[in-house]
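Appendix B. Chain record.
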Amino acid sequence: MAHYAHLSMDEKEKVLRSFEEKDANGDGQATLDDYSTFFPSYNKSGRIRVALIDLFQHLDKNDDGTLHFEEFITCSYVLFDSKYRFCDSCGSIVWGVYFVCVECYK
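Structure tokens predicted for this chain:
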């Protein structure tokens, strides 16, 4: 929410419109199916679906199976303003620090 609070009015409107597009029935929440349209339609590696479910579950703070606007704001931040990586093996999103120098790896 801190990130959202510092967006320009145009950027806030863009996030709100994006959420409204994903909220197919207008009930103020996006299901996994609604939310899946948030990801690009292409996926060269075949891992978007695994990452989609992983990210959705992390963002669904109250475990009700939907994303409310506040949870969706976090989604927009993660996908557009931060760098996320996928696990080469299972396709899940890699959370946290994932690069270290050779000395630290040892």
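Further analysis of this model is presented in Appendix C.
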